[in-house]
Write a structure and sequence with these properties.
Helix content is 72%, strand content 2%. The chain has one domain (2-265). It has a two-stranded antiparallel ribbon with strand order 1-2. The protein has nine helices and two strands; from the N terminus they run H-H-E-E-H-H-H-H-H-H-H. It is mainly α.
Length: 269
């Protein structure tokens, strides 16, 4: 972009890492990152649409290549869930794990799209000066996902143990049911409930955000001249290949932690 070529490196990176936002009221505390919401929703529909399209064309005979790929994915996710969750996994947990993995993988994979080319499209065609196309580089997205998992774990904990059983566990585990240790038990469990979504969200956000920064730095280097273009392109390809592992691994870790937290909610101390 011509306008971006005149930016300093700090301004260039800041431009690509600025969200398109909407506030509820003038100067309101509540601000919505519309680009993260829209991109997340689009990728969620794309993921569900692809699986539905492949499942719709599934046959009992010799599977097509795309059907075989999805069957391998289903089998892989189901095996991972089976090793952690010992209840009826097919009712909710396994489908949720599959949905989380595919959705997070698609959001992470947006990091591979050339940021300058798509930025020119967003600004030239859609007239959007700021638009972040990778939802998981926005900490609000990863926090929303992790908080949703936390709420699911609380829901299943209450469903399995009852409201009284859940409250009893808050105050009587892990140090026992003596009234003198109730505050320590509650504090211990409170720290656990707070730390789970923090670690769950920040691990995904930090890895994808760091990958985005490295891509931007390589694009900057590529714009410094012929030598920068050559070395920037070589390193960019190398980093993209390595980043494939990060993108898939972070989606897998996020999915596995989701299954672990839901499984823990079904267990009693």
């Amino acid at each position: 972009m011509a306008a971006e070529s005149q930016l300093t490196p700090t301004e260039y990176i800041g431009h690509h890492l600025t969200n398109f936002t909407a506030s509820v009221g003038q100067g309101s505390f509540w601000t919505l990152n519309l680009d993260s919401v829209v991109m997340g929703a689009i990728l969620g529909v794309v993921g569900l649409g692809l699986i539905w399209w492949i499942a719709r064309g599934a046959t009992t005979g010799v599977p097509t290549k795309r059907q075989a790929l999805v069957e391998l994915l289903f089998s892989f996710i189901d095996d991972q869930v089976k090793g952690i969750f010992h209840g009826d996994r097919h009712n909710f947990v396994a489908p949720t794990a599959l949905s989380v993995f595919v959705w997070v993988l698609l959001m992470n994979a947006m990091d591979f799209l050339p940021v300058d080319i798509f930025s020119a499209f967003y600004e030239g065609v859609l007239h959007l000066h700021y638009w972040r196309q990778v939802p998981t580089t926005d900490v609000n997205t990863t926090f929303a996902l992790s908080i949703s998992v936390l709420l699911l774990s609380i829901y299943f904990s209450i469903k399995v143990k009852g409201l009284g059983g859940w409250i009893h566990e808050l105050f009587c585990a892990p140090f026992g049911g003596h009234p003198l240790v109730w505050p320590a038990n509650f504090l211990f469990n409170l720290v656990e409930y707070v730390s789970k979504p923090l670690s769950h969200s920040l691990r995904l956000y930090g890895n994808i955000y760091a990958g985005e920064i490295i891509f931007l730095l390589l694009w900057l280097w590529a714009a410094t001249g012929l030598a920068g273009t050559v070395f920037g392109a070589i390193l960019g390809v190398g980093w993209a290949i390595f980043h494939i592992l990060i993108v898939v691994l972070q989606a897998f870790i996020f999915m596995m932690l989701t299954v672990v937290y839901i499984s823990m909610a079904h267990e009693s101390h």
